[in-house]
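User: Hi! I have a protein structure encoded as tokens and I'd like to know what sequence might fold into it. I'm fairly new to this, so please keep things simple.
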């Protein structure tokens, strides 16, 4: 059994912070990044994930799982749904049903033949945007299911679970991840420079402002 970790890397602020957290905890030779081509409308996410992995000096694998695009029904994979058009929906239009569940499950499936037991994911229930698959109880239940279904004890690390966006920014600075932040993508509108208006942009800007740190992405 190896003491190695796979980081679910989307190319965003949170997963990038988690990658640097894993580098500190497990060492650069024991960390790999796993990204998903899930039919997202904004392909810039994958470009940013690759750039972040290259800067970190870790291997990256990209798995094609485009079923989400076929399912539709959310603003991140369905061009017919506009960001910010929540209306009377109980969950945001940017919620992709099952996405984090599938990502972590695929990460475990990727890790199983390699005997990698540490999975790192950038979910947070403190600033989780109303996504139920970012809650601790969801991750706990998934951990139990993976253990039973694969007969291997995976440890799912969620270092941002109880952190606000400001605390996440401070953690990224502490880990030396600020150069990487300039390569990340957060904007739901898929714009670079970011639109500054969507929920993801507003939440990111608020986190950097409260942390008292200039967002490196805006300096590029």
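Assistant: Happy to help. Inverse folding works backwards from shape to sequence: for each of the 220 positions I chose a residue that suits the local structure. Here it is:
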């Amino acid at each position: 059994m190896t003491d190695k970790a796979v980081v679910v890397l989307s190319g965003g602020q949170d997963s990038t912070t988690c990658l640097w957290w894993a580098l500190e905890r497990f060492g650069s030779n024991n960390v790999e990044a796993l990204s998903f081509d899930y039919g997202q409308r904004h392909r810039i996410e994958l470009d940013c994930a690759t750039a972040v992995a290259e800067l970190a000096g870790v291997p990256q694998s990209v798995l094609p799982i485009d079923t989400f695009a076929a399912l539709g029904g959310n603003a991140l994979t369905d061009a017919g749904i506009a960001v910010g058009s929540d209306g009377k929906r109980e969950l945001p239009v940017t919620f992709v049903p099952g996405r984090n569940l599938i990502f972590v499950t695929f990460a475990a499936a990727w890790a199983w033949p390699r005997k990698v037991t540490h999975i790192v994911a950038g979910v947070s229930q403190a600033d989780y945007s109303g996504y139920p698959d970012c809650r601790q109880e969801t991750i706990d239940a998934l951990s139990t299911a993976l253990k039973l279904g694969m007969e291997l004890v995976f440890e799912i690390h969620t270092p941002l679970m109880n952190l606000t966006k400001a605390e996440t920014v401070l953690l990224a600075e502490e880990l030396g991840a600020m150069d990487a932040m300039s390569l990340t993508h957060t904007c739901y509108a898929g714009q670079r420079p970011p639109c500054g208006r969507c929920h993801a942009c507003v939440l990111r800007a608020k986190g950097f402002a409260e942390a008292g740190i200039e967002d490196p992405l805006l300096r590029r």
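A useful reference point when you look it over: The CA atoms of residues 91 and 142 lie 21 Å apart. Feel free to ask if any position seems puzzling.
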